[in-house]
Amino acid sequence: PSLEFDKLKNFPVMNIRVAFAIHPKNTVPNVRVDQIRKILTGAITNWKALGGADMPIRVVIVRGGGVPAAVESELLDGKPIAATEHAIYVQSGTQVMAVVGQEPGALGLAQLNLGKPSADECFLVLY
């Protein structure tokens, strides 16, 4: 407490690379980062707004994980993810990918290093 605040130094300990995954049969050709931001803040709630099918966007997210915290910090300027009306909460990142592969309206948030999906799993949109 007695140290001067302006002499503190920041040391990065870890970087988290995030993948945004959508179902392989989702007809949206791509999703831009600004659109993902709007989805996560609740401004876009249906795939139809992005040129896809008329179905709600279901954010698939690890409850209390590092990925949601990183996305909130870096992509949402510290604001919480607000797209929770149709959210699906899971326990691990691998479960995110499994749910996205089964839920056509899903937008999953997971660590990039979870492995490359097979053709019948999900399409990754990288941030």
Strand-and-helix sequence, N→C?
EHEHEHEE
Oligomer: single chain
Radius of gyration: 16 Å
Q: Tell me the strand order in the biggest sheet.
A: 3-2-4-1-5
Distance between the termini: 37 Å
Largest sheet: 5 strands, mixed
Number of helices: 3
Helix content: 10-25%
Number of strands: 5
What class, by secondary structure content?
alpha/beta
Q: Give the overall silhouette.
A: elongated
- Report the β-strand fraction as a percent range: 15-25%
Calculate the mean pLDDT score and round it: 82
* Uncertain residue ranges: none
3D structure, described in words:
- This protein is 21% helix and 18% strand.
- The protein is α/β, with parallel strands linked by helices.
Describe the structure concisely:
With 127 residues, the protein is of the alpha/beta class. It contains 3 helices and 5 strands, in the order E-H-E-H-E-H-E-E. A 5-stranded mixed β-sheet has the order 3-2-4-1-5.
